[in-house]
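Researcher: Go.
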Amino acid sequence: MSADDPFLEFRNAFARAEAAGDDPVAMALATADVTGHPSVRIVLLRGVDHRGFVFHTNYRSRKGRELEVNRRAALCFYWPRAEEQVRVEGEVERLPPDESDAYFADRPRRHQLSAWASEQSEELGAREELEQRYADKQRRFEGQPVPRPPHWGGYRLRADRIEFWKSRADRLHDRVLYVRGVDVWIRSLLYP
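Model: Structure:
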């Protein structure tokens, strides 16, 4: 790990994970509510560039509600076959509607319909209720494109800290931390 640019280092680590047979897009997303109570779940990385890390969800889900009251969040990628981990911290912002629309239009139709059918994170009385809602959406949008629901879209985590961990023998692991400065990333090594 020697790149001065954490996003270049991330792309390199991502490629190593993919080559090793890990699922590189799976990441843990940690959020917290207004009182600081944390929650974490696995979401999928849908884009990364110098602006940050992108994922999509229902704005009314638990994570969406938590991000409305507390914009700070953290990501963790763990790639066991590559023996690497990347932790990311920063502030989350909603993507502009046109970016969410473009991503939604490229999703498989059945995933588009699921976004309309699911009241994500709300209590469900019976599985049949969800299946009926899905069937209702199939009928509603039959023969036409499925538009993005107004309650669904993308987020970008704008990183201010990115830490890379690489397993080494005798637990003498490599840890490299990047902290966003005014115009540059500040890179330092950490004890394992």
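Model: The chain has one domain: 6-107+151-189.
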